[in-house]
Amino acid sequence: MTGKHWTTQDLLGKLIAYPTVSADPNLALITFCAELLETAGAQVTILRDTTGNKANLYATIGPTDRAGVLLSGHTDVVPVAGQDWSLPPFEMTQQNGKLYGRGTCDMKGFVASALVCALKAASLDLKTPLHIALSYDEEIGCVGVRSLIDMLAAAPFVPQFCIVGEPTSMRVATGHKGKTAARVTAKGHAAHSALAPTGLNAIHMACDMIAFLRDLQEDLRISGLRDDDYDVPYSTVHVGTINGGTALNIVPDQAAFMFEIRNLADDDPSQILARLEAYRTRYLADLKTRFFNADITIDITNSYPSLATDPDSDVVGLVQSLAQTNHTIKVAFGTEGGLFSDRLGVPTVICGPGSMDQGHKLDEYIELSQLAACDAMMDALLDRLVAGD
Questions:
Q1: Which residue among 56, 109, 127, 144 is least crowded, i.e. fewest CB within 10 A of its CB?
Q2: Paired residues of 131 in beta bridges
């Protein structure tokens, strides 16, 4: 890698060749990026997970005695299984002004541009440092980045501001909803299906809980808080999976489902959960008079906070000037930005190349013009870091 001049497009092709689906290791990609940055003179820290097969990367170029600017991106991608790709998903293909491959849009395009920015920065006399954060397991709930945030929380400085490079078509996004994922497990009483009334059907119990969640969603839609900057302007409740039972002629004594809450910044998800808990208590009180071992548990499996950056804040104005845009948006999907803002108090926006309309789909692509716009934003950022703005 020594002496090679990397363009964003060349580097993106290299990154796409690493099949970093969330279920698989990302260490080979992280090792490549670390060697690339270290060769250029960056200070690099690698934070491995407990298996040693996945890792975050944090790199600094420039002074280490002051806060700097953070560019954050994730290295994992969603699966391609079950998608009928017309092009090889882990080999970048250029056609008609577009680059195809899994992760081109979400979000290795931004990662490639950020790495090229870092390589350029290494040859400049920066007054303000540049930081690069690359994380794992973002696609399954911003899981991996948390150890990196723990590290920064103990550091003498946190970044002045953060740009999360999720695809926004290079528009500046100031907010996204928070997310809480939970599992509901129902315990009933087994019986032969010919004597079904003598048992307690756990699938029916789960369905009753789901019915309550559907009513709760309708209440949030009609009378809950609203933020019309979102396509769906209210908090949402969604059931994604359900399972239970072993055979048709057995009244099932176990059933479970997964649901999520995506909450507006001003909506406290614990209040929504409290309403479900209150219903659970009332519901079980009646069942336990007939089946003492009846039970329903609600377990939180993952959560991350919303992002709500003031559109009039300095970071928004600065990134708008870098990206040459006057508008702001809010995005439907979650990011690690909420964690940087909530846990570290770092002013954060989301701005990156490509559109999420192409993300998570077969034949994912990013337009070359979007990569060029991102590179232009990075060059404008470097000018400010050299000047110490």
A1: 127
A2: 60, 70
Please give the sequence-ordered ranges of beta strands (E in DSSP) within 264-372, or none if there are none.
Answer: 295-304, 307-308, 328-331, 348-350, 365-367
Helix (H, G, I), strand (E, B) or coil at 300: strand
- What range defines the domain where residue 14 resides? 8-176+306-387
User: If residue 38 lies in a helix (H) or strand (E), which one and from where to where?
Assistant: helix 27-39
Question: In this structure, are residues 225 and 234 in contact, taking their beta carbons and an 8 Å threshold?
Answer: yes
Residue 253 reports pLDDT greater than 90:
yes
The pLDDT, as a whole number, for residue 2 is 47
User: Is residue 66 situated within a structural domain?
Assistant: yes
pLDDT bucket at 325, cuts 50 / 70 / 90:
very high
pLDDT digits (tens, 9 = 90+) for 112-133: 999 999 999 999 999 999 999 9
State how far the Cα of 378 lies from the Cα of 57, in Å rounded to an integer.
19
The answer to whether residues 358 and 366 touch, using CB atoms and an 8 Å cutoff, is: yes
The pTM of the full predicted model, rounded to 2 decimals, is 0.94
The pLDDT value given to residue 315: 96
- Within 8 A by CB and 6+ apart from 5, the residues are none
Of 148, 154, 150, give the one whose Cα is nearest residue 132.
148
Residue-wise DSSP of 123-171: TS--SS-EEEEEES--TTTS-THHHHHHHHHTSS---SEEEE---STTP
311 occurs within a structural domain: yes
In angstroms, how far is CA 135 from the centroid of its own chain?
10
CATH number of the domain within which 240 lies = 3.30.70.360
Q: Are residues 324 and 210 in the same domain?
A: no
Which CATH number belongs to the domain containing residue 316 in this structure?
A: 3.40.630.10
